[in-house]
Amino acid sequence: MNPRLDLLQPYPFERLRQLFAGVEPPAGLRPVRLSIGEPQHATPAFIQEALVMNLRGLSAYPTTAGGDALRETIAAWLTQRYALTPIDPAHEVLPVCGSREALFAFAQAVVDASAAKPLVVCPNPFYQIYEGAALLSGAEPVFLNQLPENDFGLDLDSLSAAEWSRVQLMFVCSPGNPTGKVLQLEDWKRLFEYADRYGFVIAADECYSEIYFDEGKPPLGALEAAKALGRTGYERLVVFSSLSKRSNVPGLRSGFVAGDRAVLKQFLLYRTYHGCAMSLPVQAASVAAWRDETHVRDNRTLYREKFAALKPVLDPALPVQLPDAGFYFWARTPIDDREFARELFAATHVTVLPGQFLSRESRGVNPGAGFVRIALVASHEECIEAAQRIASFVARRFGAA
């Protein structure tokens, strides 16, 4: 077996299962799971219909590059969403079976394991796929702490020039999971300067890009920032996005990568052997989803209403700030985050995710310690009920107002 498999840490939800072992929550309370970022709003009917109406496509092998209709639809969406010079659907877009699969595979294609001690940079806290992808590609993951005292910015100065010179790939998540931080143009300018200076590729994870508060101010995207800074060829930049959060279809496993055509050409070669082509029915459903914005606006409204309703309930107990975007509260805990999550579950049957399960100690700091991630994915009624249980638990346990 690949010895690097032994370097992988248990996934956060396996650690959560172990944390809750032996705990029996109150039987009279229905469970409310706010731990996993799995959208639970209804999948739009027209997407389901497009999938079913094209089931005849199951009789054909799909191409790894995807059909023209899907690539052209994604290119049109990107061009419109980010006010770009028209994206080339043939060379700057590649459909993928969800961003998770593609983020992992991308590191395997990009990292040159024969180089001396290659590094892959990850935000911290982070989506654990980044770490696993780095380790199994033959690289060492290094982490940039994102702390509240620095407005959750990426601490680029925490790595030395010698370390940056070994970096081959950098994962960036904006809007961030779990912090909700959206990178601004100055942040991207500095990231591009580092990529140019040290020659690494940026993998920008934007799967939360369509969950935001102000309809007039959507989050800045990496391709949009590149264009604004004169980088129209998107050198050393590849963006990952998905329909899972945007369109409430996590089971569809549909997304895309877009950006640097030279990088995508090589990534397509890798994927031809990797065996991850999107089926034709899923492609048809994806075309329908990317072409419609009404359901996306409706989806944002549901999250907006939940944030507005939950914040005043949680604030007296767990002071929370609205994220820049996304559907998480990143909340401080009055005790160790693992103990808090376990006690909360035992008392209320509400599940939240300890921040330490989403982070690693770096430079003597674990930026997830003392936080929990609260995913506002359940129904409005369930989220309100969960917030009330959390507030009552904190008041009883810690004497909060």
Automatic annotation (TrEMBL):
EC assignment: 2.6.1.17
One Gene Ontology term of the molecular function aspect: succinyldiaminopimelate transaminase activity
Ranges where the Aminotransferase class I/classII large domain occurs: 32-390
Keywords, ordered alphabetically: Aminotransferase, Transferase
Cofactor(s) named in the record: pyridoxal 5'-phosphate
InterPro entries found in the cross-reference section: Aminotransferase_I/II_large, DapC_beta/gammaproteobac, LL-DAP_aminotransferase, PyrdxlP-dep_Trfase, PyrdxlP-dep_Trfase_major, PyrdxlP-dep_Trfase_small
Pfam families per the UniProt record, alphabetical: Aminotran_1_2
Tree of life domain: Bacteria
UniProt-listed PANTHER family: AMINO ACID AMINOTRANSFERASE, L-GLUTAMINE--4-(METHYLSULFANYL)-2-OXOBUTANOATE AMINOTRANSFERASE
The protein's name: Succinyldiaminopimelate transaminase
